[in-house]
Predict the structure.
Amino acid sequence: MSTVNDLATAALSRAADFGAAYPGSRSVLYRRLSNRLHQLYAAAARWNPEYFGVSAVGTLDSGGVSFSTMGASGGTYAPELVSRIEIADKGTSSYTNGDEVNLVQLNDPDAALPPRVMVRNQALQQVGTDLTDVTSLRMYYSRRPFRLAADDGDTTVDFPEQFEELLVIDLTKWITRKATNPPLEQRAAALASLDAEEQETLANFEQEVVSFTSAAETGRFMRTAGQTRQ
């Protein structure tokens, strides 16, 4: 697994091959890496929410719980796409642990039967009194990575190692666009080459994400042994 600084160094080296030099701060490169990382996680969540899938339990307070307080004390991943919400501890309610909690919108709370929740300002909030006697909820979701900061150069990149080149290519393109030294024609040729490489690598990544759970579930009513990230 590579560090953030490893990928930045690789991108600078590749850009230099095209005659592009970047004299700016490494922290700016880290920010670009972080942005692209979040974009790839968002795309993966739409292709297959199981790929970066995790779960977290949160204790309800007045029928609500913030995403930031769910999960382990070491830091909770922010959700990109919610797959399922269920009752973790029914408390004194008449529900059963594991019962699904329906996610509805503010302007259409009757779109589903109780128990129901809405998402308001990065928090789950009960509809009416649906969860008054429930102690905690479990949420299954496709996560986002943590943001990279200026001092995160030695941090291991939170991305599949075999596809780290997607981050390097994007950063190389960004450096090449920002640099002023390559002639316009040379820069255009470099970007065209990088675009083609990126599209091929991105297609392979999409195939990996889409097929990730195919060994675990080959149909709605047929399930075989397979891996899961939850």
